[in-house]
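Recall from the previous lesson that a structure prediction takes nothing but the amino acid sequence as input. Here we apply that procedure to ASCH domain-containing protein from Blastococcus jejuensis. The sequence below is the only information supplied.
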Amino acid sequence: MIVEVVGGREEHPEARVVDIDNLTALHLALGEVTDEEAAEVLERAGLGRFQDDDIAFLDVAALRAAAEPRATAPDWATRWDAMIAHARSDGRLSADGASVQVAVESAAGA
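The prediction returns the following tokens.
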């Protein structure tokens, strides 16, 4: 699953959740946006916040709410739970389970 923040000089940046049925990886991908635009859009969408240029924290409940209605895999909920459990075992889930730490990458082609 990918949370993208995309836009450009002549577009208003937006956050969107894509690759919803792929629950083997979770990351934040940035298109042609400044760091400030990306942080503002991510927070305004309620999807998370940046720690720094390389790390972000995504809101688990907001991410699931954005993704689950559009999921097509019949076992999506089970795979979601497994992804979150894996994040917990890796130490990437907050103590309260509300946010998950993800890598920030470039959204090549976005």
